[in-house]
Design a protein that fits this description.
Oligomer: single chain
Number of strands: 59
Largest sheet: 8 strands, antiparallel
Number of helices: 27
């Protein structure tokens, strides 16, 4: 899969020599060459490691005035000819010739680039120039090209400049559009006012005369399919014969797609998928192998952007391997999607959702840092998928190139382990690293310049089974990287390196297996090198292959090689001698199995052995010899992932293939891959990922589970965020590692930097549910203990209990009652995701006892948090069922209370009110209130006060408010920051209610306030007042001569100064808060002390000018104590102000 990284690069284009249309006409990349056709000129660039301009052709002013600007263009498949149609309907054909003049760009290594000459071969006006027609884009094959006209016809032109004439499309359509095929052949020749019709009197279909203009053509040479888009949004699919576009009579209209409002289309020939862009800004995917049935649609609507923001789809570009596609919109932005609908990259900043990929856009924010802000007019990937070249709408000055890395997905003839997640770019590796803090980070690893400069770009990457070694292959040769030692190993002899053209990489233990293409003989072979030495002298074995392999895999000593159409060969690898530099080991391959399978299905994209899964207790037997023999036994099954996404299981004994699922992008075989005791996924057979999310597969129980017809059972889906693409697994942590896009911004760069960000999603809850379902309680407990220190352990237990309880409720309700969809914060992914269960869905844990799950979780201190969290996620009507198995709510509360887990205990208050009654809940809340005050947990105490006052009113009324039963009401305790701003009536009026319940709350609060005031704990007093909304003014008025009294000024100033620590900002804010309240009750003693500490001379001046005796006492005290020397400057300032005031009054 593809992830953007780094800053977008800008390729400047030459400015026109005369006023012209600000729009690039054509953009395409073929054979490391980039062709750009502008309105007045064309440029040819290198798209390899060094991006330099190789040649250009600039039209003269006379040519532009006479023949018009460049309007449409097309490049021949062999890159030797360029055809351009001007706005005055002149056809220009140019010849591209690479010269022998080399290009030097600096440095010691040659670039291998040569200048190109572009010359004009033909300039002739087309026959339809005088018909006032508009044209579509060109499409072509090796001999001819087609262009669409506004009268609904297509015009055929040869690359020799021959005008072959026009032909129109007449279609016999059935009411069931898109389902039937048509056999009428289209006529040839130039059309006039009408269209040709085919008269079939016995046909029940009706004639549809196509009069709309042809606005877009899309052609797949591989599939021999032509798609014609008309101005009314209709899209027609035609088949092309092997003879090509020259023989237009062989074009057959097959179907009209059901989609409406189509504006563009693009074909993925390997996947046989048609991507269609619409006026609504949506891209629809069609399966061409299944009668053009709709697969799915993708858009930015779920990310807060409508068609008013982005405009309609303007262009679509598939990656070279057809696993992803880029979408450009007319008004704004560019986005890359996977086939399954995962958003891999987007230039548009995020609004609407809480997303890790993009920041929120402020209305007045400068948008200059957003690429493609004006929309995307043209896009094209380079041949390796490392660069996406894009041109902004209404721009002719530059090309923007986005750098992409490809994820190692263990497909085809290159294998990698799931424990090492690697993204490789054109000249570097991006490695996911798990730090000691359990934080995942991306490490950029640059390849040695001596290797990559000669063998650009990186083509294959494979990680060893333990993930500690990487094999990397470029255009020639290969290099190895030791992750522990951080060292590269390369070929010592460059000549030997250049003889290797790697087409695939595998690891066979400590041996690197290279699928090598021999250019001289056009054959393929396997080369076996030890990882300690890359040299011809250390080559262990050379195995010629029958043909180019489609897929390869290794398990222990067995090697699988698959050829077209579907021939499977399995070899046994036998190594004799020690694999070390000091010995001479010998490696031999022997064929153990050959299968030739006849099938009409699509070709395999990946194949992997499925080893037999042995129970752990069997692995730990004392009879190690027998268990070792079983471990090295030849695998009897393998998984097949086909190009169309079908996943199936192949029995290698009898050749039977069993279909498992479809729409799969990748999978990981996990069974038999790790021998570590801390492996948390040993019970899993494999995992797959597709548009449904992640699926976990297990072997079913039984005497011989490997011979049962239905030995596989599918786990409920693991919903992955649509911005996170999975890369692999961390078996010791029980998590799936994915990657998503982030963007960082800098004031010194025009564009943001794209940063792949690794994310982790746990699958522990699936594993625990699987073990409990099979009554493996001890194994489940051991697995849970191994995971107890892992991140998100509490979340896993919560999700486990939630899904099991949901299944219990669903199984008891004949109407398939479903738990209300609620939003749960998924901390581990950094986004909000909805946990939903679909009506009538089959959940494997339906028969799982809820009590059994509770018994497992009781072994961990997280149990109390987990239970109350599940209660918050369910309807209050089912709390009785929940706590009948989990334990009585009052007992759980008491346990939390005794352990001083006060916040968890507070979460049980509402449950107690629902199940045990208001009196019990109020009693528990009062106890908890006193405890939280003693611990200075004032925010939690404030929530308890508000609950007590609210519940006192609600439960005393005969008609209880329905809100008290709602799970969101428990948010008062779970999310305190959301409820800090309370209505004013809860602040004062609630205390005046003449009830014993309110009096108890008031007594507890006043008692705590007196305790704090007596000890002069003023910072705590401020926090207490703010947290509980305690009426401090009323209290001060009543306790003026009680606990709030200051005995004398000097001791009060010294003690309060020590308590408040005025050097900190928070202490000064607390003092200001208290001073405001003291001024409101005119508490002079406190006003003088606090104003002195704050050096508020204006407050002191206003007080002293009306009470000179107080001023004299204040002055004497300050001057008479050495500890108050710091206030002498304040005293002098006040004395000056008071003296001036006295003098003014006397005059």
């Amino acid at each position: 899969m593809y992830m953007a990284y780094g800053w977008p690069q800008v390729i400047p284009l030459e400015l026109p020599n005369c006023p012209s249309t600000q729009q690039i006409v054509y953009l395409k990349v073929v054979n490391r060459l980039l062709l750009v056709v502008a309105p007045t000129h064309l440029e040819l660039w290198s798209s390899s490691q060094h991006r330099v301009r190789l040649g250009k052709y600039k039209r003269g002013l006379d040519s532009i005035r006479r023949e018009g600007e460049n309007l449409q263009a097309v490049w021949s498949p062999d890159t030797k000819l360029i055809a351009i149609l001007t706005s005055s309907f002149y056809l220009h054909i140019f010849k591209v010739q690479i010269t022998e003049k080399k290009i030097h760009v600096g440095g010691k290594q040659p670039t291998g680039l040569f200048f190109a000459n572009i010359s004009l071969l033909l300039s002739e006006q087309v026959p339809f120039a005088n018909k006032k027609l508009t044209v579509s884009n060109f499409i072509c094959d090796n001999k001819n090209m087609l262009i669409g006209l506004s009268d609904g016809s297509l015009y055929n032109i040869s690359w020799k400049g021959e005008f072959c004439g026009a032909f129109s499309l007449d279609m016999w359509l059935n009411d069931n559009i898109g389902a039937n095929k048509f056999s009428n052949h289209l006529g040839n020749g130039l059309t006039s006012s009408g269209n040709q019709r085919v008269d079939v009197s016995n046909h029940v279909n009706h004639v549809v005369s196509q009069t709309s203009a042809v606005v877009h053509l899309e052609f797949s040479i591989t599939l021999r399919l032509l798609f014609v888009l008309f101005s009314d949004g209709k899209l027609i699919q035609c088949s092309v014969s092997k003879r090509g576009l020259k023989h237009t009579e062989s074009l057959i209209v097959e179907r009209r797609l059901a989609s409406e409002e189509v504006v563009c289309a693009s074909v993925a020939h390997e996947q046989q998928i048609l991507a269609v862009g619409t006026l609504k800004g949506v891209v629809e995917l069609y399966d061409l192998a299944d009668s053009a049935s709709v697969i799915r649609s993708v858009s930015l609507h779920d990310w807060g952007y409508s068609v008013e923001d982005t405009g309609p789809v303007n262009c679509i570009a598939w990656t070279p391997d057809n696993s992803a596609f880029a979408v450009g919109w007319k008004l704004r932005g560019l986005t890359v999607w996977s086939v399954s609908g995962c958003r891999l990259m987007s230039t548009i900043r995020q609004i609407g959702l809480s997303s890790v990929s993009s920041p929120v856009v402020k209305p007045n924010q400068d948008f200059k840092y957003e690429p493609m802000m004006g929309g995307a007019s043209l896009m094209h990937w380079d041949e390796h998928g490392f660069r996406l070249y894009a041109i902004e709408e209404r721009s002719s000055e530059r090309i923007i190139a986005f750098s992409f890395g490809k994820c190692c997905l263990n497909r085809g003839v290159s294998g990698t382990t799931y424990v090492r997640q690697v993204i490789y770019g054109e000249d570097r590796l991006l490695i996911v690293q798990a730090e000691d803090t359990d934080e995942l980070k991306i490490l950029h690893l640059n390849l040695p310049v001596s290797y990559i400069s000669q063998n650009w770009p990186v083509l294959h990457v494979a990680a060893s089974r333990d993930g500690m070694y990487l094999a990397v292959a470029g255009l020639h040769g290969l290099i190895l990287y030791d992750i522990r030692l951080k060292r590269w190993r390369v070929f010592g002899d460059v000549t030997q390196e250049q003889q290797i053209q790697c087409r695939g990489l595998l690891w066979l233990g400590k041996i690197v297996v290279v699928c090598n293409y021999v250019d001289s003989s056009n054959t393929y072979e396997l080369l076996f090198y030890p990882r300690y030495h890359l040299d011809q002298s250390s080559l262990l074995c050379r195995k010629p292959l029958l043909a180019k392999p489609m897929a390869m895999d290794v398990y222990q000593d067995y090697l699988l090689v698959t050829y077209r159409p579907f021939d499977v060969h399995i070899y046994h690898v036998r190594l004799t001698g020690e694999l070390s530099p000091s010995s001479t080991p010998d490696l031999q391959l022997s064929t153990v199995r050959e299968l030739s399978i006849m099938t009409a299905k699509s070709h395999p994209a990946a194949m992997h052995f499925i080893p037999d899964q042995l129970p752990r207790e069997y692995m730990l037997r004392s009879d190690t010899s027998s268990s070792s023999d079983l471990l090295t036994r030849e695998p009897a099954r393998c998984l097949i992932l086909r190009m169309n996404g079908d996943l199936s299981l192949l029995d290698l004994d009898d050749g039977r293939e069993r279909e498992l699922t479809h729409s799969v992008e990748l999978f990981w075989v996990t069974c038999g891959q790790s021998e570590e005791k801390t492996n948390l996924i040993e019970e899993v057979s494999w995992l797959d990922y597709g548009h449904r999310g992640m699926q976990v597969w297990y072997p079913s129980p039984g005497v011989d589970p490997f011979k049962q017809e239905d030995f596989l059972q599918l786990d409920p889906e693991l919903e992955f965020d649509r911005e996170v693409y999975p890369l692999g697994l961390l078996p010791n942590a029980g998590v799936v590692v994915g990657v998503c896009q982030r963007m960082s911004f800098s004031a010194c760069t025009e564009f943001p930097c794209f940063e792949p960000s690794p994310q982790a999603q746990t699958i522990l809850h699936c594993l625990l549910r699987h073990l409990l379902q099979r009554d493996k309680r001890e194994e489940a407990l051991r697995l849970a203990h191994l995971s107890a220190e892992k991140p998100h352990f509490s979340h896993c237990l919560e999700w486990l209990l939630f899904t099991v309880f949901d299944a219990e409720i669903s199984s008891l309700n004949s109407k398939s009652w479903t738990i209300t969809s609620i939003i749960v914060v998924k901390i581990h992914m950094g986004t909000k995701t909805k946990f939903k269960q679909k009506p009538g869905s089959s959940i494997q844990s339906c028969n799982l006892s809820f009590e059994k799950t509770c018994d497992l979780i009781r072994n961990f201190p997280e149990y109390y948090d987990v239970v109350v969290s599940v209660a918050r996620k369910t309807d209050g009507r089912h709390w009785a069922d929940l706590f009948s198995a989990a334990g009585r709510s009052t007992e759980l509360f008491e346990e939390c209370f005794q352990r001083r887990w006060y916040r968890t205990a507070a979460c049980y208050i509402l449950v107690i009110a629902k199940l045990e009654g208001p009196a019990v809940s109020q009693y528990c809340a009062l106890r908890l209130l006193q405890a939280t005050l003693d611990e200075s947990l004032y925010e939690l105490a404030g929530e308890l006060v508000r609950f007590l006052l609210r519940s006192g009113r609600e439960y005393e009324s005969t008609n209880a408010d329905s809100e008290r039963d709602s799970p969101r009401f428990l948010g008062y305790f779970l999310f305190p920051t959301s409820f800090r701003k309370q209505p004013q009536d809860a602040k004062s009026s609630s205390f005046k209610e003449p009830s014993a319940h309110v009096a108890s709350v008031k007594s507890i609060l006043e008692s705590h306030a007196s305790y704090l005031m007596s000890g002069k704990e003023l910072s705590k007093l401020v926090a207490f007042v703010k947290g509980t909304q305690f009426d401090l003014v009323e209290y001060l008025q009543r306790e003026r001569y009680g606990s709030a009294r200051l005995e004398n000024f000097a001791s009060g100033l010294e003690m309060i100064g020590q308590k408040l620590h005025m050097g900190t900002l928070q202490s000064r804010l607390d003092a200001e808060f208290l001073l405001a309240h003291m001024c409101s009750v005119k508490f002079k003693e406190w006003i003088v002390v606090l104003a002195t500490l704050l050096r508020r001379s204006e407050v002191l001046f206003d007080l002293f000018r009306h009470d000179l005796r107080l001023w004299k006492a204040y002055s004497i005290t300050i001057q008479g104590h050495g500890a108050f020397a710091q206030y002498h400057d304040l005293l002098e300032e006040l004395e000056v102000k008071l003296s001036s005031t006295v003098n003014a009054e006397e005059t």
